[in-house]
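Incident log, entry 3
Record: HTH CENPB-type domain-containing protein (143 residues)
Problem: checksum mismatch between cached and fresh output.
Input:
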Amino acid sequence: MADLEVSQPAIKKKYNFDASLKLKVVEVALKNSNRGAARKFDVDEQQVREWKEQRNSLTECSSKKKRLDGGGQKVAQLEMEELVSWIDCLREQNLRVTRSSIQAKALELSPQSEEEFRASRGWLEKFLSRHGFSSQQKTTVSQ
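Fresh output:
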């Protein structure tokens, strides 16, 4: 018996497509077929069908945009968005905003129904990076 070589299935790389390319794919699909457009631009046929359904919203958005409005993960805790305005308000008054004060305010703002929320260090790091905050060290003043 001859040894048979077993090949691994090719893993397809994920790509980001901007709105202008999506519209080109849709135009080709409307002239020819979904399958033909998918083959020509090397995308899945299902993706071509979805882009055809989104054609009106794709024409309205900017050509460099890669995601339509409303895409992405939704905010889980709307109460924590008040925390952003609280931090901005304190910074405008040139008051120091410490990490522990942010955690205390988050616990105060969290709804009573969520007892498992602890405002941990990990949560704080992700919250600060998500909203573009950074630690600002107080510098010394030279005489």
